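Reviewers of the previous submission asked for a worked example of the structure-prediction workflow described in the proposal, so we include one complete record here. The input consisted solely of the amino acid sequence. No template or homolog information was supplied to the procedure at any stage.
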Amino acid sequence: MAESIVLAYSGGLDTSVACKWLQEERGYDVVCLTVDLGNLPDVEGAKRRGAEAGAKSVEFTDAREDFLRYFVFPALAANAVYEGQYPLATALGRPLIAKLLVDKAREVGATAVAHGCTGKGNDQVRFDVAIQTLAPDLTIVGTARENEMTRDEAMEYAAKHGISVRTTVESPYSTDENLWGRSVECGVLEDPWAAPPEDAYAWTKPLDRTPERPAHVEITFKEGFPVALDGEELGPVELVQRLSDLGGEHGIGRIDMVEDRLVGIKSREIYEAPAATILIEAHKALEALTLSKLQLRMKERVAQEYADLIYNGLWFSAHHRDLAAYTQSTQRHVSGDVRMRLWRGRAVPEGRRSDESLYSYELATYGSGDQFDQKAAAGFIKLWGLPVQVQAQRQLLREPGDPLHLAAPEE
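From that input alone, the workflow returned the following structure tokens.
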């Protein structure tokens, strides 16, 4: 009797080919597990391709709410963005899929799990590290890196075995989608000088087709998590989907970047992340109102570390637990509303309010209600500048030349 393996199955080219390859080359009975993170526009097609590829079964799990509540929103609270641009949509989905793979393997008595990640990508690291951490006894098969098929060879293999796939020679993109974002690579996008063709985008309109007037949306946060739009309380899935649709209509969330992959190469990536772009900007605006200067500075450093950790596949680590604990603590007072202006590809905060705001009108105003003691400023400035004054008099002004760099450099 053949051993069973659970394959992370998207229904696309790579994993459909992987399903057949695992049977023919490795002798496994294949259980396909498709995890819905908001990325299943063609469920029936995925089932059909799984059957065409000879899967023992094709099973589906709706993990959309868990994905947002336990993976995306904690990353949002940290303002985690990789290399200043990428909101980590694909990277955030991998640890959840890995956990569900392990759970399914235990359920069906499988001895192995598999994924269709290539040997060049980051996802193989994210899957492997998570699975090794959660279930070190399971064998991991990375089908794409082991069969080493090129994209063209994979399409030929699918055609040979009667597997219908959406990828074609004319549109050879590799895509991944979930509620938080969509990633696109391969094909003409591999030339960083080439402008992305419009057919690479699916969620966002080009700017010349966006509405002539801006849209406004009021986002309510409670302890760092979004909970309502325009005063209407919504669950995570509906809230993110509404913002994604609205942002896409206004061309918001297009990202074209060359990023540094974990495996050591640079890669040109196209992302669409309307909801992520809007929510991150709104969350930052509310934090500016409710966190102290020292908290904000520290959070900036934590945000980069948090983003790197997610990108590098270290979700199930003690380091992540510690960063998450700090981030959660900072969000105790990050509650309130932010009004966002959406127009011509930009999401801009136009207003923010909170019952826990650190902004004091009486201290900030220059009008008649001013309560700031301006006379106290002179003494403060004297003490603040005292170390600079002492060092200049004792050291810098005694040095030859131009110790204070006042003169223009010689040519």
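The chain is about 40% helix and 20% strand. We consider this example representative of the routine output the project will generate in years two and three.
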